[in-house]
Amino acid sequence: MGKEVLRYTQNRELSWLRFNQRVLEEAQDESVPLLERMKFVSIFTSNLEEFFMIRVGSLCDMAEMDNKKADSKSGMTPREQLEAIYAAVAPLYKERDKTYSDIKKQLTAYGICGLNIKELESPEKKYIKKYFKEQILPILSPQIVDANHPFPHLLNNQIYVVANLKQPGSGSTMIGIVPVPEFISGIVVLPGHDMRYVRMEKVIMEYLELVFEQYQVSDKNYIRVTRNADISPDDEAFADNDDFRYIMKKTLHKRRRMGVVRLEVASPLEKEMERYLCEKFKITQNCIFRTKMPMKLDFIFSIIDKVPMSMKRSLTDETFSPQPSSSLAEGSVMAQVKKHDVLLSYPYESMDPFLQMIREASTDPDVMTIKITIYRLAKKSRLVEYLCAAAENGKEVTALIELRARFDEQNNIDWSERMEEAGCRVIYGFEGYKVHSKICLITYRSRNEIRYITQIGTGNYNEKTAKMYTDYSLITANQSIGEDASVFFKNMAIGNLSGVYKHLIVSPTSLKQKVLLLMDEEMKKGTGGRIVMKMNSVTDVDFIRKVAEASKAGVKVDLIVRGICCILPGIPGETENLSVTSIVGRYLEHPRVFVFGRGEDQKVYIGSADMMTRNTEKRVEVACPIYDAQIKKRLVRCLNIMLSDNVKARKMLSDGTYCKKKGGDKRICAQEYFMKEALNAKRPVKAEEKKGVFVRVKGFFKK
Predict the structure, then answer these.
(1) One of 253, 436, 503, 590 is an active-site residue; which one?
(2) pLDDT tens-digit profile of 603-643?
(3) Residue 183 CB partners (closer than 8 Å, separation 6+)
């Protein structure tokens, strides 16, 4: 007997597709500069690609194993979910193609023109043909498929030019396949001042007769397969193998050969070819999607780089650089953090103060240990260099690296090896539990006492994404929080997931329980209760039930959820006091902030966890209470500004769809507001010590 399906829940996959549709809406927004709109088309496309690799891939596996297992939010079986997904994606393809076409047409006025061969002038055609013969043809790896040449393995998300080949005289037919090389540019730029280009797959397809010279070529097309990439390393293998890195390398190799979950085609396939490919890939016709726009849009970013600065001002967002923290003066970050808590707000404020603090700690004679959890890092990471320097300077450096950060596995393997070489102690996570927390602990000696500086964030220690994702990073010298952090790292080192903490709330043991308890406290206040929570996704059924209970108790609940949200607001008798807001804008909204209550009794937490079952039950996550009154007010104020956004915010309706949020005569765009605020903020005067004590005025330092 299946679980009861709640009246106020919706399927997570269909909810995610609605989120991605909001990304596409940004590409359709005429107030957004054209090349930024094209970026949103690219983001929509890469989002969908990952969705098919992970979520659709997972459902395909489930459908093969147990077709009767129903989704707890919608009651649909895996097979029914797949059918609903394929049906929902088809119109999104058409909407995306039209959006791309509209933007592409408008870009021609600026001399940015993506062209077909037939649109070229005669000299340009000669240039392209010569370029193909000299630069492309020698590096191609064509293949025929017949009795002596088996159908090749098509790599995940690589473009292939295909055609039917006929041998003159014999009448025998076969298929020709040419991979579009991934190690060369995706476009051929034509000579001249304008940015006129032809995509590489179109060039290869145009001159396919030169590749298969002895054949008659027909039904030319180009295709791309998306493969299931939802690999969970076998837990039993961990127990029998000490080299976790080796297992992950094997896992990455396996991912390349998984089953096909989507086939994209540039033109409708000839019937016999369609039947053949469906048979080879073990897919049905509804898994085939025709795309009139490029299958890959990576080249857009190279075009943006080549556009002259004078033109770029009209076509891209105004440049914004993360600003210095408004709560830190010049000078030692560690010295200032010892006096007052600091909250960094990315990307409005720079990540540099945190990096500077690690650099200071690496040479500070009083610092004994630095401990950190690492989930995702940039390809070039100053953080790792500073941690390695600390180890080389005799500090004990411990890095808990999660090698199963999806699609960042190889990067994390590389960094773990680099850190071990430098003398860092590198440990890995747990069987069945990803370590997703963002916590760093510096232990130092002060007058024969052990003291701590703790950093807890909502996002990764990735210097690149810190300029593109919104996140919060708390740095505090609060001794009680430091003691909890010390216990946390000890528990991680000895494999204890059941640690007890006085201040931090940690999954999988205490985070969800504490959140539900705090919600219960608000429910006791009835209409006087208040809950505001900002997250990326909401799927946890226990949390969803509690939200509905709170709403029925009269508590006003505001959820700010960027992506998946499986609870529906405005359901009579269930969620009438719930509102759900989503903001999709220039930056990816990423913080997790939980606020309970009003006024002086308000409790505020930031952390790494969404209210998803995987986060609350299958991951190690850390959330931290905010004790500094000014920081608490700042966070609550930021949430209120987001709730007032009437430009980029969308309001979820009771059927799970979204509409633009309205309200007030004043135009409020939260991300623009925070950028302007960061630009206009005054930094405190350079901090000086007066008789060993920092003098503060209104939260700032004064000489």
Answers:
(1) 436
(2) 999 999 999 998 999 999 999 999 999 999 999 999 999 99
(3) none
